[in-house]
Amino acid sequence: MSMKEISFEQLQMNPFAFMKKDCFLIVAPDGEGVNPMTAGWGSFGVLWNKPVLSVVVRPQRYTYGLMEQTDTYTIAYFGSENRDAIRLCGSTSGRDTDKMKACGFTVGEVDGYRYIEQAQMVICCRKIYVQDMKPECFLDAQLMAQNYPDNDFHRFYVGEITKVLVQE
Predict the structure, then answer these.
(1) Which pLDDT does position 12 carry in this prediction?
(2) Domain 3-167 architecture
């Protein structure tokens, strides 16, 4: 499989399907390899005049520690393909399982960004802002009650989109 670079302005996708319907993998460096974690929450936009993709990770996730140790992460998008692999990456921990091996994925690298070669699209991000969610900042108490009954609030990672790769 071969990837080609496109500009972020050339992205042809529905961000709501990307984030909710199809899900995606947050891919964080882990030693010489990577650890993919299934995610369904995040946002695209422009912030500080930069194209950004923001993701959230709970502190108990293995990926949280990896994200804290790196300045970069990638997002792997598969569409509706590879449902079993996406499910596995969301239901097992990288502490206990080599998810890349279990899914039959291989690691690619470009300009220091590690990614999953089998993805339809890869978005390379450089962390530019990090902030923990705080209970006092919720204006809708129902959201907090539904999503954080254990007070395990996510950490926001805002990443500048520096490169977009798609399958040729």
Answers:
(1) 79
(2) Roll (2.30)
